[in-house]
Amino acid sequence: MAEAKETPPIFEDCIFAIVISKEVTNNLAKELKTSLQDHGGEVVIVSNGSIDINEITHIISSTSDFPQYENARLQMLPVVTPSWVSSSLMRNKQSPIRPYTPDTRLFFSGVHLSCADIPTGDRDAITGAVLALGGMESSAVTRLTTHICALSLEHPKCQTALSKKLKCKIVLPHWFDDCLKLGKAIDSKPYEFPNPEIFEKKAHDNLPVPHSPSVEGATSPEPPGLLAPPALPSTRQLKVFEDRRVMLSNDLGLSPYLRQILESLVQGGKGSIVTSVHEADMYVCKYRDGRDYVFASRFGIDVGNLSWLYFLIANNEWTSPLKRLLHYPLPRDGIPGFKNFKITLSNYGGEARIYLENLVVAAGCEFTKSMKQDNTHLITARKNSEKCTAAEEWNINMVNHLWIEESYAKCQVQALTTSRYTHFPPRTNLGEVIGQTQFDLETLRTNYFPRDPTPRPEDPVVLRTLKNGQGSTEAGGNDDSDAMQVDKQPFAKPTPRRMPKTPAPTRTFAATTPSNRRSSTEKENDTPSSTSSRSAKDRAVSKLHELAPDIALYEKEKKRVGKGVWGGKRAADQIDRERKSKEPSKTPSDDEEEAEDSSEDEVPGPATKKVKTNAPKARPPIDIRLIITGYKRWLGSPNKEDLEKKRLRDMGILVISDTLTCTHMAAPAAVRTQKFLCALAAGPTIVSAEFVDKCLDDKEVPDVKDFLLRDKAFEEKNGNSITKVVQRARKNKRKLLHNVPVYCTADIGKGLPETYESIVKANGGLFSLYRGRGGMAIKPTNPEDDIGGGEPVYLITGLKPEERKLWPKFEEMVRAGNMEPRIVMAEWLLDTAMSQVLSWSDDYLTNK
């Protein structure tokens, strides 16, 4: 009988580095070390953040905030939280890496999802998002399941979780939707069964202001008070400065006494104080300018402000100055575009409020504690307060804190139309996710320390580079000097990472590639990223040596004699052909952006090759951008709709929903729908719905003139054909209601204020909700109105008692502005938009 093959230890041939932090204490690190060694692993405990990534296979850390994280990520070295170890021991094999990453940008990390009674399309979308952002998904409910996405508790998966008392949360799909809209993971409690708050409570019910741990110690660029040695225990040793060379800039304005205190703390922690930035590892300054700042930034030296230095002293733990916005030096003149903004806050409290006040000032805005009509922006954590109501009435921009944070991080004003800046989950105070936005090093480089295109031989960077043998200005004179870390790494091929004696299947990184592995030049879309330039430089320098043989071969192939293309081009073409042959065909649900891909005809050269028969067919250019309303062919058949929209695109017709860019509109009649009236303001060619049927049935586009919409009922009522109305719209150029103030009561009907707002703005008017609050005023839209021009101001209203009470206040407000109040039914707006004529009749008045 053959002996059973002995199973190798779980962590055989694995070498771990455990990073000490607040969460991973020395005692926990020792316990992890024992467990890993008992199962075949080797362990190194790191207390000062210095990790030799060439000698290890895994990093265990509770945070991604350590110096070598970005370098490890670029080299696809797994970085996992301590829970990965316990999970692996429980499974008796190494667990997947993805759910245990400490990278906060992958905010679904740690989520192990199973969907219950969710429609197929929604389930696929939720699952895809979870997987892309660090989570895992399984069809069955297991002990590892952390979240069940369900619409009710009736599904067997939910019943199983409840009966077995599994430690998993049963949440509504709304939670995933709100997280994705914000790009942040908010608390799931308001979405959890058995009694989800978003259904049980109203949005305006009281909600406590949450604690904001991400801004602790980073609420201001200026430390709140002096730091004296008696405030620190005499037995405490600041390991964070060990072997570090620190330079304090003159622009900090430190008194001799405070400078002496800071220097003694650094030196007491086995660090040193230097007076030249060329010798520094850490550069502390106030502003993002000056020669020393540019040099330090280009050369990969850690650059932070005094608040960052205090944070290091208080916590005795290294953190990147790019992680917290107010730990990085200030822009001396603020961020371009913010100078004329006047901003106030609502629904933020404690340190979060102090942080936002200072961030607003740092961006170059004026901050006001109270809100008046001259405020330009309201930053709020919830869409529920007196300030929020007033902002809607006064047309003040209302956004959440992500707008000011990302504007500051990206060094430019972000568009208010971005949906995540105006999204407010009903039972969430967004103060819980404040302070999570980080700087992107590439953005800072572009705006504040772009590379010098003409480095001089006498430049300190060049001299330092030549001195350390890292190349010459002749060979790479245009290379960015900050691509090399000359003092920390000699220009030599690094020692290769130690590899296991026997390949371990569980360490096949390609099978568990985290979604955050990208090239160093790539940017993230939904969440800002921070990069470690020092580690990237080391990697770039070493790669030059590794690529040297390939470069030599490339140069040799270029010199090969012959008419055919040389090796690299030939190989690239072959790879490209194989890749294209494996690409899946486009689905019928191609979105509008894909449909608008460039379709310009290629100009054939003198030796044009014959096109292969299996090449994808090029789409024709877009001739018609079509809006369809009131069309019944696709009702209840979404698959048919997707398929036929694709067929229309293949004929040069793009079906869109944007009323601003349409060229044609198809409708069965002149209907007074929101889409029809908004699109009509653009003056599109209006055709009957039969035009769409004809295109799909005949598979070709007929003459549009043969299908122009005619509506006898419309012509009898308005005395004009639709064609003439379209001609008027084209002459109006969306200015039919230009500078005409139109108010609307909030209680006129559910969804109606939003509909009327879109129609008014589509025709160039000014729209506001009117609730009759005190303090409201109206200013004439033309300077002559101050003399008594009496321009009309409209209030669209219903006949409910609560609406009638507002009429006298509205009239008083308008007359106080020397203008004429007109309180009208909605018919006035609909008839005006439909006829494209701003005419008037007293028949529209409700109070005549």
UniProtKB/TrEMBL annotation:
Acidic residues: bias regions: 590-603
Coiled-coil portions: none
GO biological process: DNA double-strand break attachment to nuclear envelope; double-strand break repair
Biased composition (Pro residues): 221-230
Biased composition (Low complexity): 504-514
Domain BRCT residues, every copy: 6-102, 96-193, 338-410, 623-709, 732-846
GO cellular component terms given for this protein: Cul8-RING ubiquitin ligase complex; nucleus
PANTHER family in alphabetical order: REGULATOR OF TY1 TRANSPOSITION PROTEIN 107
Protein name in the entry: BRCT domain-containing protein
Species this protein is from: Coleophoma cylindrospora
